[in-house]
Amino acid sequence: MVNIEKTIDMILKGQIKIAQPKVGYRFGFDSVFLASFVNGYLKKINKKKLLLADIGAGVGTISLIVGFKNLNIEITAVENNEEYLKLAEENIFSNGLNNKIEMVNENIFNINSKLINHFDIVVSNPPYHSAGGNLSNNILRDKAKRIINLEKWLQISISLLKHKGTLFIIFPAGILHNVLKYLEKSSGSFKIFPFRPNQNSPAKRLILEAKKGGAGPTQLMSGLNLYNSKGFLTKQSQLISEKGIYNFNI
């Protein structure tokens, strides 16, 4: 076990506190905005008693934001790194979300068969660096972002969904082709949401919404500019960071 120092950080204007490694992989833009996107979707569909799986949950950032903002949801957060599991359990307890979020010590590549076809929603900020590449000297950061088999990760994520269930993932724009290729046999009705640094820059990150068994056309959504011409967060980005929800039309 790696002995790590931790920090306690606040998000959503202090409404959620998160213990995370002081040095190494720490939550950031990807987790907060993906959770906010899912919250916007949940607000729009307005259904009760949904089951959600957070795959590769880390210290639980996505689960915490979704659980905090939604009354009628049960979350299974899947993680198999002991250090992250310990921090995630601490975060769930300290934010009073024990009744909504269950941490499960599972390796996604050897997932419990009871979880197959079980969830209405699966959300993931998957690792995307190749297994053979050099990433980081920090053990926890390396483990968090290095992927053995992204194709299998995505296929298993889809398998956890009920028919017509919805997958939400965030990833670098440069691997969009591979992500769509990996998912097209088992899902469809793709919606692609780009995040751009500013209006003059190409998207660096994408959120993809996919329906298990979906057959609708692929849609490119308008997306979001994170910063204005002066280098400050746009009003929309600021609201998302403070409120943890992105309002959009489905």
Give a description of the structure.
The chain has a single domain, classed as Vaccinia Virus protein VP39 (Rossmann fold, 3-Layer(aba) Sandwich). The longest helix has 17 residues, at 29-45. Helix 5 (150-159) crosses helix 6. The protein is of the alpha/beta class and 250 residues long. Strands 3, 4, 5, 6, 7, 8, 9, 10 and 11 form a 9-stranded mixed beta sheet that branches. The chain has a two-stranded antiparallel sheet with strand order 1-2. Strand 8 and strand 9 form a beta hairpin. It has helices at 29-45, 61-69, 82-94, 139-145, 150-159, 176-183, 235-243; strands spanning 6-11, 16-21, 50-55, 73-79, 101-105, 119-124, 161-172, 187-196, 205-212, 219-220, 224-225. The radius of gyration is 17 Å and the shape is globular.
